[in-house]
Amino acid sequence: MQVMTDDEVRIFVRQNQWATGLQIDANERSIYYDNSECRCIELKYPETPFKVPYFARLLSFLGIGAEEHFDGAVLWITFSDIGSPQLVKSGWKLVEKMRLGFGETRELRAAPGHSFRSDEFVELSAFLLPCFMFGWDAYLLPARGDHFVHISHDEYCAVVVKNTDVFKTLFKQLESVRPVIGKEGTTAKFCRPNTSPDKTS
C-alpha cells in the first residue's frame, strides 16, 4: 500500500480519467460520472458491529466477485473530523498505527489517500472498517473504473455505476445488504451528465 496526499489523489483521478470516466468537481472534494447512463445504488450502514467486516469485504470485491480477481483500488478518506474529539482521535490513531506497518509516518489528515495493489485485497477491507466505525466520508475507487463507492457520515453508502449493465450486475451482487435505487439527491450529486468539471461549483 502507498499513502497519498489529497493533491496526489486528485492528480490520480485526472490522469486516469480517460480509462475510468471519473470526474472531480471544481472544489476538488466530490467525484462523479458525467455520462447519461450513470446510476446510483444506496445502502444503509451495517446495523450491528458484527456486520461491518462483511460489509467492508463485500464493497472491496464488488464487481469482481472474488478476491483473486481484485485489481487494486484507491481509498480516499475525505472527512474524518466528525464526532467528539476523543473518538475522532481514536480513529486517527487506529489508522495511523495500521499505516506504520507500511512504513508511513504521516498523520491521516496530511495524507488521507491509500493506493492498494492487486495483492492487497485484505488490507483494503481492513482500512474500510474505520470508515464505518467512526462515520467518516470516503471514496473507494476500484481499478476497473466501472463504478465507485462513496461512504457518507450520514450513515449510507452510494454505489455509483457507469452504465445500466453494471447497475444490474452490482444490484444483484448487493442483494444480501438490501440495496435500493439511489434517491434523486444522491443521484444528482454523483451523476452529472454533460457537466464539464470547470463549470461545476
Question: Can you give a write-up of this model?
Answer:
The protein is an alpha+beta fold and 201 residues long. Helices cover 34% and strands 23% of the residues. The chain is built from seven helices and ten strands. An eight-stranded antiparallel β-sheet has the order 1-6-5-7-8-9-4-10, sandwiched between helices. Strands 2-3 form a two-stranded antiparallel sheet. The protein is globular and about 40 Å long. The C terminus is likely disordered.
Spatial order of the strands in the main sheet?
1-6-5-7-8-9-4-10
**Which consecutive residue ranges, at least 5 long each, have pLDDT under 50?**
197-201
- Note the run of SSEs as H and E: EHHEEEHEHEHEEEHEH
Report the sheet with the most strands, covering strand number, pairing sense and barrel closure.
8 strands, antiparallel
Straight-line N-to-C gap = 32 Å
Number of distinct beta strands: 10
Structural class: alpha+beta
Number of helices: 7
Based on CA atoms alone, the radius of gyration comes out at 16 Å
Mean pLDDT: 90
User: Percent of residues in helical segments?
Assistant: 25-40%
| Shape by Cα distribution | globular
* Proportion of strand residues: 15-25%
Task: From the structure above, extract its key features.
10 strands, single chain, 34% helix, globular, alpha+beta, eight-stranded antiparallel β-sheet, 201 residues
